[in-house]
Amino acid sequence: MEYYEYLLIFGSGLIAGFINVVAGGGSLLTLPILIFLGLPPAMANGTNRVGIFLQNIFAVSGFKSKGVSSFRFSIWLSISALIGAILGAKIAVDISGELFNRILAIVMMGVIALTVFKRKNKNEAGVELMSKGRQTASIIAFFFVGIYGGFIQAGVGFIIIAALTGINHLSLVKTNSIKVFVALIYTFFALAVFTWEGQVDWVLGLTLAAGTSIGGWFASRWSVDKGDQWIRYFLIVTVSIMAVKLWFF
Hints:
It is a single chain. The protein has helices spanning 3-22, 27-36, 41-65, 71-94, 97-117, 132-151, 156-167, 172-196, 202-248. It is mainly alpha-helical and 249 residues long. Helix 6 packs across helix 8 (172-196). The longest helix has 47 residues, at 202-248. The protein is globular, with a radius of gyration of 17 Å. 49% of the residues are buried.
């Protein structure tokens, strides 16, 4: 590869790391770029996880440094999600590249639709719904989140945001802190599956990770300082950019 292609991967990682932590959908940028640069779809999928994993280490540290954490609930969600992620990753390495690309295209359109048409959370007063029933519903939901995340990853942040704000009515700041923790745990196991199957390019993955880690660190601290309103604005801008890219390119 040429040096400018490594710069492209690093730069896309920087942007994706910020997007992933604040909103979600960064892999909708990095995954197509890796495929465009010549990686087979399964290897691009696996290589992308290196950036996701290291990004979330820095993002979790960033939220913790700001005092935003929900550790016990996050652990239960992570256990459920990692079981699903192992299954999803195994499916991803076994399907054909052509089918994967078609699924990715459908996912990109679906993520945009999910975000655009999602009903506004009526519980704007900040009252969390954390009864045992609600927590159990989230734990079950995160098993399926894990399957999706292990399979394709792209856009999983939007799904997690929809689940935690819809079921538990958590603020977007707390939702994002839980999101990066859960993604850190299940991505480790998904990455292990891709590595075992020989579907990771570590040079490109670590180049990508350098960018996503820096982006994730700054985004975690920025999102706490700016609060829910700015995160919501960023969600709108992110989805709009992806929609233009999908429509015209």
